Amino acid sequence: MSLSQAQKKAFRSIGHHLNPVVIVSENGLSEGLLAELDRALADHELIKVKLALPERDDRAAMLEELLTASGAERVQTIGKMALLYRANPQANPKLSNLKRFEGHHGRH
After folding, report:
1. What are the E-state strand segments in 25-72?
2. HEC secondary structure over 74-106
3. 38-69, pLDDT tens digit by residue?
4. DSSP 48
5. Where is the CRM domain (predicted)?
């Protein structure tokens, strides 16, 4: 399910305006965090996650665990922020960031 460069560019454009909906702290991955991540991806498809860990290597490892656990795909990582995407064919148009911002930011 690899994203094309054009898709990633469009998603980055949308993601720029999003606030993080999931924040991962040094406590690591809990069942509650994974459930919230799954719900956020199901509702919004494209989400921003904040990795509140001081070490770059720890953030990278945590992000890999998140991607594996959620089945999401990384669109972009900048510092402590990661933009994740997981398609949901039954996404609610009022909640999905892709549907809400369709046509915005140069997308058609």
Report:
1. 46-51
2. EEEEECCEEEEECCCCCCCCCCCHHHHCCCCCC
3. 999 999 999 999 999 999 999 999 999 999 99
4. E
5. 1-97
